[in-house]
Amino acid sequence: MAQMTQITPFVLCSSLDRQIEFYRDRLGFALGFRADNYAFLRRDSVAVRLLECPPRDDGRPLGDDQSFYIDVKGIDALFESLKPGLDDLPEGRVRPPFDQPYMQREFHVLDEDGTLVFFGEGVGDRS
After folding, report:
1. What is the pLDDT of residues 26-75, one digit of tens each?
2. What is the reported pTM?
3. Among the four 5, 52, 56, 69, which has the fewest Cβ within 10 Å?
4. How many whole angstroms separate alpha carbon 108 and alpha carbon 120?
5. What is the pLDDT of residues 111-120, one digit of tens each?
6. Dihedral of the CA atoms 119, 5, 34, 15 (nearest 10)?
7. Residues 6 or more apart from 84 whose CB is under 8 A from it?
């Protein structure tokens, strides 16, 4: 029987080098493969595929309408481990951990081209 095992988002970027550096140095991903305008990065069982693209016709950042959610265990510990690499990002690019009304604890990070990366962990009773 067929089974789906993972989702790996394509993340559009204006500079592959800059995005690789961001996901590697700030979010702890390891570069697995790179060729021309494409790179594959992984951390644990999570992966992203970076795709360098020309600018949008409307002038908006490539990631302006992109986002993805990474489910984690140990959300606060993860944030603390990433914090040194996130602290010098411009204001508004990082939202520290907070509790959502839908029983998730999350933090958010905007990447170099405006893609919103959600990190979240279920908390409390879900009944």
Report:
1. 999 999 999 999 999 999 999 999 999 999 999 899 999 999 999 999 99
2. 0.91
3. 5
4. 9
5. 999 999 999 9
6. -40
7. none
